[in-house]
Specification:
Number of strands: 6
Number of domains: 2
Shape: elongated
Radius of gyration: 22 Å
CATH architecture of the largest domain: 2-Layer Sandwich
CATH superfamily of the largest domain: Endonuclease Chain A
Structural class: alpha/beta
Number of helices: 12
Length: 275
């Protein structure tokens, strides 16, 4: 029988398959025997080993149980899961999911925490057409949007303060239908008991303290961190000497931005002009 050779360095998915195969062979198990231990068919095992099928989180955890490898396979799965994300962003997501307070400022596009699935899909599909990511990575990005938004409705919901540059609501993404649904989502977000939504008008001009998007997190122990991105990677800052000035600037931005009532009124006016 021909055995497909894998190059573990070619991709995280190939590395996962190579690890699964080598672990199985080290135990002297056939694919059928490993499948019985994990609860999957031998065909499924073969597809993951050869890189034809992307492993899932349940599959990865089952492999860790079968081989008694702690969370080794789960960690490799997470590398695959976040393969299309900027360096630094996966670490930030872990902190965001347990934050007590989230403050974010966005320019140009809706932030992931507020995107509709249709809006997120349009952005992901555009990245595929540009060759920036694969269709599989696009699907993962859209799924990640939903997972992040689930943090807003967890048992101990965080306080979420959002300031959007006016460009976020005026830049057309995906056509009138997609934009109208996205603007409606913003109105719904503003009605939540743990959120504040504000628009920073273009007229703010040079009084706007940030030129790039930024997110500030307050963790349950009241420690602070900030996250910002360049084109190549994300930067997670924990030093208070760097984060506190950004927090002060954010408060200044909130004071200059429209109130939530005025912001929602602007969104509703814009929706009336959307076919």
């Amino acid at each position: 029988m021909n055995v497909k050779e894998l190059n573990p360095e070619s991709s995280p998915q190939a590395a996962f398959g190579a690890r699964l195969r080598s672990s199985r062979k080290a135990q002297g198990w056939t694919q059928d025997e490993l499948g019985e231990r994990m609860g999957y068919s031998s065909t499924h095992i073969s597809s993951v080993e050869t890189g034809r099928k992307v492993p899932t989180l349940p599959f990865s955890r089952s492999a860790d149980r079968a081989f008694a490898t702690g969370d080794a396979f789960e960690r490799e799965w997470r590398e695959i899961r976040h393969g299309s994300l900027l360096e630094g962003f996966p670490e930030f997501l872990g902190h965001e999911g347990r934050a007590a307070e989230i403050r974010l400022y966005e320019v140009g596009v809706m932030p992931g925490l507020l995107q509709t699935q249709e809006y997120a899909s349009v952005l992901a599909e555009s990245a595929v057409r540009r060759g920036a990511i694969t269709p599989g990575q696009a699907n993962e990005r859209v799924s990640l949007v939903a997972e992040r938004q689930a943090s807003l409705i967890r048992l101990s919901s965080p306080l979420v303060f959002v300031v959007l540059d006016e460009s976020c609501i005026r830049r057309p993404i995906g056509g009138p239908g997609v934009m109208d649904a996205q603007l409606e989502r913003l109105e719904e977000f503003a009605e939540l008991p743990n959120t504040v939504l504000q628009i920073a008008e273009f007229a703010l001009g040079e009084r706007r303290p940030f030129d790039l998007p930024i997110t500030l997190l307050t963790l349950p122990d009241r420690s602070l961190m900030s996250y910002a991105e360049s084109a190549q990677r994300g930067y997670l800052e924990r030093e208070s000497t760097a984060v506190l000035p950004a927090l002060t600037a954010y408060h200044q931005l909130q004071a200059e931005a429209l109130s939530q009532a005025a912001s929602v009124a602007m969104i509703r006016t814009l929706r009336k002009g959307t076919p």
